[in-house]
Amino acid sequence: MTKNAERNEDEEELAAQQLLSRGFRDVVADTSIEGGGSTACVAVGHPDGLLQVANLGDSGFVQFRLNAVHYWSNPQTHAFNTPYQLSIIPPKILARSRIFGGMPLRDFPRDASITNHEVRHGDVLVFATDGVWDNLNSNELLQIVSRHMAGFQAWQTGEKGTIIGKEIDALTDEGGIPIGGENTLQTMLAMAITGEAKAASRNARRDGPFAKQVQKFYPHEDFHGGKVDDICVVVAIVVGTPESNG
Asked: Structure pTM?
């Protein structure tokens, strides 16, 4: 969802699953891509505050509202550490599978989990790959988000609870935070989450969510510490118009 997004009435409006399907078709049609697989998390937002998300696999998103976790997406897996994935399987591998039996796991956009949400002024949406979720839990992510939102007065907590700061609009504009390349609040949040996830993934003494799952299902493995994996983070901060803010 982009700030001040406007719906283009001249184009067909796409739902999240349709957008995911279109992207997958384009990748499959690209003859330079011989094979591979990927999870996916696609969101489509509208000015009226509605957000639709298509999530496939163990990427996902979390919605923060006023210093609290409002929604946390669930991963899709065939088994432990075996997420749903959009795949291009080379013909040779498919041929071997037919000969020796069994078929590679293969998922499609129609298998994605579709959820609908209402977003409000001041909400923070974090979309990320499993390199984040495997190493940081919801409370740790909330601490990172709250620290930055409160530090820049985008969230302000007082006797009446937490409210949205008046400067949030300016902070999310290009150049709102004049610190090197991290010049918007959402960019700073994405960088902070990425940095924390990377540090946790390399920490052999800190058991993250993945390590705790391994200990639960495979206690004989004696797995400890973080899990080094791909880390990609996209952060959106919802900013309403004066009319929508009441």
From this structure: 0.89
